[in-house]
Write a structure and sequence with these properties.
- This is Alpha-glucoside transport system substrate-binding protein.
- Keywords: Signal, Transport.
- Belongs to the bacterial solute-binding protein 1 family.
- The structure is a single chain.
- Strands 1, 2, 3, 4, 7, 11 and 12 form a seven-stranded mixed sheet that branches. Strands 9-8-10 form a three-stranded antiparallel sheet. Strands 5-6 form a two-stranded antiparallel ribbon.
- Helices cover 47% and strands 12% of the residues.
- The longest helix is centred in the N-terminal third of the chain and has 18 residues.
- The chain is globular, with a radius of gyration of 22 Å.
- The relative contact order is 0.19.
- Helix 2 packs antiparallel against helix 16, helix 9 packs across helix 10 and helix 9 crosses helix 11.
- It has two domains: 230 residues, D-Maltodextrin-Binding Protein, domain 2 (3-Layer(aba) Sandwich); 204 residues, D-Maltodextrin-Binding Protein, domain 2 (3-Layer(aba) Sandwich), CATH 3.40.190.10.
- The chain contains 21 helices and twelve strands.
- With 457 residues, the chain is an alpha/beta fold.
Length: 457
């Protein structure tokens, strides 16, 4: 993108999808998987496509969404009802979606469709035998409307289970235009320029970055953007699945690059200790609050929601962002996340569930939420005019234009014990690295030790 843009705003509930289920929840999930994995895989349902008469049927749906997000998704469900005659119900699961679903299956009251944010959870659900494959009609619609990478992320062991309906753009650096103007810097077009600008900002009297080190997941996102750009998509895929070890030289190189930032105390608001005491919402406030303590905060498009809702910033005017810049001559990274619709085999209405997921694969369904705001769609058939303003259109376009180079959040692909548990695994090791970034090789070795345990190697 050539001009400064910002993503669609997101409600506070967007933050729920960056939380993984707790250790206790993971234990319940493992118990539930063991109890149900003995069932045979069901054959996929068949259907005549969206628009068929489903009057008298009800589709139960579950997901983490609440508040504004749920209100907007309800508009999508209402459109499905109008088109097919099928009623829908929605249950908010809380952040521990896996635990919720496991308990519902054990209790014999499984929902028909679940919106799953963590790729690793989707894979565990599929390999447990919980999910129904999406049928040929859904498959054809998804193939026509989505880049292949999105279908691939919904596929487990060669079977298509998950349709990605909502996406996040996690390669954006948000900044205060007042701070940039005061220091005389412009948005960086390379990582090297980003660090140069950071030093210029620090020299002007304001630390460059507010880093949310208290939330380990933000540090994984820093690493993933640098690694994707430096090492490239193929190496990213191999590391995400532990096909290569975390002691690979490419990992050490990325950690070294990240460590150069973390070791510059003057570039971080409060230094490393201050960053480790800062959670994600607070990091946004340090840039966009009434008394700014930093000029920039790196995170996804959901930063805009907090800057606007909590601090009264006008997005596109006094809260702007630029794309995470390319590192060492690599391509600009586009790291994403998303919510995939899956069908539970133990739900009561598999046929109507297939038709709902088929509807979610259409640009008509995506356009409903796009018009309401707080939404990015990976559906390439969606006309960008469906979004309510030009800058959101450009943000969505950047996600679509990335095509098959988009990569899913790596930590969300990992087992929760490594990539999604507070105080453990990758989160804790990268927090330790923020505290002392002097030995990238030792950090890589620590990451490999924990990854090997989690992946069962």
């Amino acid at each position: 993108m050539s001009r400064l843009t910002r993503p669609a705003t997101a409600s506070r509930t967007s933050l729920g999808r960056v939380r993984r289920f707790t250790a206790a929840g993971a234990a319940l999930l493992a118990l539930s998987l063991t109890a149900t994995a003995c069932g045979d895989d069901a054959d996929s349902a068949s259907g005549d496509g969206s628009g068929q008469d489903l009057s008298g049927q009800t589709v139960s749906v579950a997901g983490v969404w609440t508040g504004t997000e749920l209100d907007n998704f309800q508009q999508v469900l209402d459109a499905f009802t109008e088109e097919t005659g099928a009623k829908t119900t929605f249950t908010s699961t809380g952040d521990n979606l896996a635990t919720f679903v496991g308990s519902k299956i054990q209790g014999g009251s499984a929902p028909d469709v679940v919106l799953v944010a963590q790729l690793g959870v989707l894979q565990e659900f599929a390999r447990s035998g919980w999910l129904l494959p999406l049928d040929e009609t859904v498959d054809a619609t998804a193939t026509a409307n989505f880049a292949g990478v999105w279908r691939d992320y919904g596929t487990v062991d060669g079977t298509f289970y998950g349709l990605y309906f909502k996406a996040a753009h996690k390669s954006t650096i948000w900044y205060s235009p007042e701070a940039f103007a005061a220091a005389g810097v412009e948005p960086a077009t390379s990582y090297e320029e980003l660090i140069e600008n950071a030093n210029t900002l620090a020299d002007s009297g304001l630390p460059a970055f507010a880093v949310a080190g208290a939330d380990g997941w933000t540090l994984t996102d820093w690493f993933e953007n640098i690694y994707l750009s430096q090492a490239g998509p193929e190496m990213y895929d191999k590391l995400a699945t532990h096909e290569i070890p975390w002691t690979d030289p490419s990992v050490v190189t990325a950690l070294t690059t990240l460590g150069e930032l973390f070791s510059s105390e003057e570039l971080l608001a409060g230094g490393a200790d201050g960053a480790l005491a800062t959670d994600f919402p607070t990091s946004v406030g340090k840039v966009f609050g009434p008394e700014p303590e930093a000029a920039m905060v790196y995170e996804g498009d959901f930063v805009g929601g907090l800057a606007s809702e909590d601090y009264g910033r006008t997005l596109g005017e006094d809260a702007l962002f630029f794309p995470f810049p390319p590192v060492d001559g690599g391509a600009a990274p586009v790291v994403s996340g998303g919510d995939a619709a899956v069908i539970l085999k133990d739900g009561g209405n598999n046929e109507a569930a297939q038709r709902l997921v088929e509807f979610l694969a259409t640009p008509e369904a995506a356009a409903i939420w796009a018009g309401a705001g707080g939404f990015l769609s990976p559906n390439s058939a969606l006309d960008l005019s469906a979004y309510g303003d030009e800058i959101t259109q450009e943000t969505a376009a950047s996600l679509i234009e990335a095509g098959d180079t988009v990569r899913f959040d790596m930590s969300d692909q990992a087992p929760a014990a490594f990539g999604g548990t507070s105080g453990a695994g990758e989160w804790k090791i990268l927090q330790d690295f923020l505290r002392d970034p002097s030995d990238p090789q030792a950090t890589a070795e620590a990451l490999e030790t924990e990854a090997a345990k989690a992946f069962g190697d």
